Amino acid sequence: MNDFKRKQDFITVFCNALRERKPMNLYFLNDHGYNLAQKDPDYGAVLNRADYLLNDGIGIKLGAKLWGIDLDENLNGTDLIPRLLDQCAAYNCSVYLLGSTQETVRAAAQKLTAQHPNLVIAGTHSGYFDSEQSIVEAINHSKADVLLVGMGMPLQEQFIDRNAAALKPHFRIAVGGFIDFASGIKPRAPKVMRRLNLEWLFRMALEPRRMWKRNVIGHAQFFAKVIWLKWNRELHRY
C-alpha cells in the first residue's frame, strides 16, 4: 500500500501522470479487500501489481497504526475521485464509466458532466456483459483516456489486471460504489458521519443483509489477522 499522508499528495502525482500520459492502475484497499486477499492469493497478487494502492477506511488506518504507520487522511475513492475528475477535465482527458446498471451509469454520466465543467464522458456501459473482449473493444473505440471500473471487489481489480495489456486508456481506476453514489440513486452518509469515519455504519443501516457480515464479522477478521501478524513478527524477532 502506498503511504500518502494527504489526498493532495496523490493528486499531485496523478496530475504529473496525466501530463506525461504515464499508464496507471489505481486501486483502493479497505479491510474487506484485505480479507479477500488473505483468502485468495491470486487476488492479493492483483492488488500488489497495482501502480498505486490507497488506504480506504478506518479499518486500514487503525491496522496501519498497529504497525507504527500513521495515515493522516482517509484516501477513499468516493471522496478522492471527484477531485481526480476535476484534473481530468483540466488536462482534457476523457473518461469511460463501466459498472452498475445501465440506468445508473447513464445517470452518473449526466450528473458528473454537470458537476465537472469541461469533463468529457467518452462512453458508458453497465457492469453486466457477456463478452469481456467486446467490452474492451468498446472502451478502446471510445478513445477514453481514463477508465473508471465500478464492479465491486474483487471483480473490478481483476478485470483491470486481466486486460491491462489490451486496454488503451492510460489510467484505469477501480472505483467500487462510486458510480452508484455519483448517480444520486444511492445516498452517501451525512458529512458528520463521514468525519467520524462511520460511513460504513450508514451503509450497513441501508443494506443490513448485504453489509452486516462484511462489516461486523469482516472487521473482526481483519483486526484478528493484523494483530496475529504483529504478534507473530514480534515473537520471531528475538
Automatic annotation (TrEMBL):
Keywords annotated in UniProt: Glycosyltransferase, Transferase
Q: Name one GO molecular function term.
A: hexosyltransferase activity
> What Pfam families does UniProt report for this protein, alphabetically?
Glyco_tran_WecG (PF03808)
* Record-linked InterPro entries: WecG_TagA_CpsF
Please state what the protein is called.
Answer: Glycosyl transferase
